[in-house]
C-alpha cells in the first residue's frame, strides 16, 4: 500500500486504552492553537532563582529517577519549528500512549498538500503498523518507524537526557496549567538528543528547558531548541496520565 494511503486516514480509532474503559484510545481533536496546553502562567513567578548548583542537580536527579520509573505515559509532541518528515510527509504533532519497553499507540498529524490528517500508528515488539483510509493496518517500512517508546529508555531516553545538561540553571518557580513547577534550562549535546527526536535531529547542540512538578518531581513538559541553523528545530514534549493502565496490542487487519 502506498505511503500516501497510509497517511491519509483521519480521526480513526486507536487500540491503546485504559483497562478500566472501553477498548478505544481517546482521540484528542487538535485545537486551533495546539500549543495552548503548554501555556505557562508566569504572572506571579519570581525572577530566575539563585538556588545553588547542588539544589539544581538534586532536582534533576530526582526528576530523572521519577521519569525512568514510568511504565506508561501520555505524550503530546508538538513540532513548532524544523521538519520531521517521513517519506516526504511532514509530521506536525504526535499524541498518544507510550509503554515500557517498546510499545506505543498514537495519532500522528501530518501535512499533506494543503491539508492535515491524523494517522493511527501502533508500535510493539520491534514492529510498527499504520492504518490507511480503508481501515487496514499495514506493516511500516524501516524508514517509516518512529520508535517513540525510546523516550522511556532508561539509558538514552528523556530521563537520562536530564542528567546530561551542561551548566543547568533553575530559572524559577512557575505555574503550568495550575501545577507549581520548577523551570530549568541547560545546553545538551546534539548526540544526546538524537534518540529523543527519533534520530531526526542530533547534529547540533540544543537548549533544553524542563518544567518539573514540585510535589512529585514528575517531568510535565520539556522543550528542545537547536542553537544553530537557518531553521532551527523547536520541539515541545508534554507528558501526562502517568502510569495509567493501558493495553497496546497488535492491530487486527
Word description of this protein:
10% of the residues lie in helices and 40% in strands. The protein has 253 residues and is mainly beta. The strands form two sheets. Strands 2, 3, 4, 5, 6, 7, 8, 9, 10, 11, 12, 13 and 14 form a 13-stranded antiparallel sheet that branches. Strands 1-15 form a two-stranded antiparallel sheet.
Please give a handful of descriptors for the protein shown.
253 residues, single chain, two-stranded antiparallel ribbon, 13-stranded antiparallel β-sheet, globular
Radius of gyration: 18 Å
Q: Structural class of the helices, strands and pairings? A: mainly beta
Element order, helices and strands? HEEHEEEEEEEHEEEEEE
Tell me the distance between the termini. Answer: 13 Å
Largest sheet: 13 strands, antiparallel
Q: Note the total helix count.
A: 3
Low-confidence stretches: 1-15, 17-51
Shape: globular
